[in-house]
Amino acid sequence: MEIEQILDQIYPLPETSKWKLQSCVTEVKYPKGHILLRADKIETTIYFIRKGIARAYSNRDGNEVTFWFGKEGDTVLSMKSYVVNQKGYEDIELLEDCELFELKSEKLQQLFQEDIHIANWGRKFAEKELVKTEERLISRQFRTATERYTELLTDYPHLIQRVQLGHIASYLGISQVSLSRIRADIK
Does 182 reside within a domain? Predict the structure, then answer.
């Protein structure tokens, strides 16, 4: 996915504003297993996934709890660092070799001051991320594990082929054994 498409799916920008934003973006590549962002650190970089898959997780009592997957076109950042410039609580690991677009938060904040269209783009980005987070929370609170798995299959069918079942089970809040049972019952 190209940067223009990624930016437009967040919020369409006038060409001049889009060009300003794109001119601050650089392409980077990292291998599978690379930790892109670290917990307990103020992260100053935002990434957009051109190609690949990533996951966000937190360590709780020695267990990794996955709470987000990112795919082509998604944005990768520490929301806490982005919004309030504080240390994040998540690690973000690349689950495949990834091609990413990189944007420094400081440069984006400068563009927000200079260009109202880019500022509105940033507001729409934050609003969309809030809605996604709310949907994940509601799903986790009010749906059964089977319903959450079915929802994952419907909304993100590609993840099942590209992500380890242990990460999917963690994301669903169940054990890998329970996930295997759910998968067998659905087939």
Answer: no
Question: Length of the chain in residues, anyone?
Answer: 187
pTM of the model: 0.92
**Residues 26-82: tens digit of each pLDDT:** 999 999 999 999 999 999 999 999 999 999 999 988 889 999 999 999 999 999 999
9 vs 113: CA distance, rounded Å: 22
Is 180 domain-assigned?
no
d(CA 15, CA 136): 33
Q: What's 95's DSSP letter?
A: S
- Cβ pair 73, 49 in contact under 8 A: yes
pLDDT value at 187 more than 90: no
The contacts of residue 16 (CB under 8 Å, 6+ apart) are none
Answer yes or no: is 157 within a domain.
Answer: no
Residue 87 forms part of a structural domain:
yes
